[in-house]
Amino acid sequence: MRTRPVLAALCCAILSACPSDTLETPELVYELDTHWPSRSSYPGVGDGRILVTNSGEDSVSLFDITRVGQSEVPELARVPIGLLPPELEGVHHAAIAPSGDVYFIGISNYAPGSGSGPHGAHGTGTADGHVLEIRAEDNVRIGEVRVDRNPGDLVVTPDGKRLLVTHYDQLLINEVQAAGGTVREMDSRLAIIDVATLTREAMVPACPAAHGVVVTADNARAFMACSSDEVAVVDLLSGDHPVVRIPLTANAGDPTVSTHLPYAVALSPDEETLWVSCLDGKDVHAVDVATLKADANRRVAVPGAAGFALFSTDGTLLYVPHQSPDGIAVVETATGTLLRDLPLAGCVRPHQIAPAKDERHALVVCEGDHVGPGALVVLDLSDESVVSTTSVGVFPDFAGVIRRAP
């Protein structure tokens, strides 16, 4: 009971030691303004823009397509993307509408380096993902739709009517295996979304942990890479969307024992051959689109883990980015021969190579160290030289071109 007078005296002593002047509140400085300029200053699509997604910081970088081929391609703008600005949500890949009016961004709800929880390692996020619709003219979000956990790749069909989203749900594989379930219970679903209403038309069980996806020019079939050493083919025209699974190896089908880990796909310009890039196998596999069978004679080993590849305009060459070691493998498609490997100065962990404004130039997305900036490299395919290298955000994983339809 005697402590009260002592405490009162102590409080009085403390208060008497404080200055009587009113404390001044320092001005708050918003440092991010220099990194994320106001959308109102963005000049719009113009003659075309290069879009790069930065998954490690939830932003997109934008560039003037007319600068491609010059020694410098400066970043035009960097724009924050997401549902919850304070939270790192893992922006992952994009799909650009053929009209050039909008683009779509996957929110994977995983973040590089976070390790656990909803933002765990790639493919292990525990929260549902989303797809955001972004207006290209000013980069404002105008819609969103919920999808399954760990959305992977996404693509708009050539007619612009549907958006397809795969799900790289490695966590589902682990959960089903632990419960003693079947391989079919491990199948991730392909989301088929109506672009006009941004609603889900169907969620089609396709294959375990699907990632890269492409669509035929007639909008009829989708091909996707599956972690079970398979390719899944989904019929987009039939109401029940039947699925055919193509094994790449003799023991394909079980993702718990896969040895190649397919990750990305590329469809040849004549749509006769699908090439499948694999991470663990460090190889690319050719699949005959007519017979839906893998061609063992055109399986090509590349120096590192293979990513999203690009065909030459005539389809005779396939440029395959690979990591550890880093480079671009040049493959002759007719024979399945590795012709040469291109080192890219200034490009750490090449993830994707994509077409630029013409058949001569290509865009290479370089992930970097996942802590600091990545890079966008412009490659001259005529002499296979690096034309320009520009820093982008943290962990970029997609590049594409936004153009207004004529």
Report on this model:
This protein is mainly beta and 406 residues long. It has one domain: YVTN repeat-like/Quinoprotein amine dehydrogenase (Methylamine Dehydrogenase, Chain H), CATH 2.130.10.10. It has helices spanning 3-17, 170-179; strands at 49-54, 59-64, 75-80, 91-96, 102-107, 128-135, 140-149, 151-156, 162-167, 187-194, 199-208, 210-215, 221-226, 230-235, 243-247, 262-267, 273-278, 283-288, 293-301, 305-306, 310-311, 317-323, 327-332, 337-342, 350-355, 361-366, 373-380, 385-394, 396-402. Strands 20, 21, 22, 23 and 24 form a five-stranded antiparallel beta sheet that branches. A four-stranded antiparallel beta sheet has the order 3-2-1-29, with no helix packed on it. The chain has a four-stranded antiparallel beta sheet with strand order 4-5-6-7, with no helix packed on it. Strand 25 and strand 26 (361-366) form a beta hairpin. The longest helix is centred in the first third of the chain and has 15 residues, at 3-17. The chain is globular and about 75 Å long. Mean pLDDT is 90; it is low at 1-16, 32-37 and 112-120.
Quickly list its features.
single chain, 406 residues, mainly beta, Methylamine Dehydrogenase, Chain H, 4-stranded antiparallel β-sheet, 2 helices, 29 strands, disordered N terminus
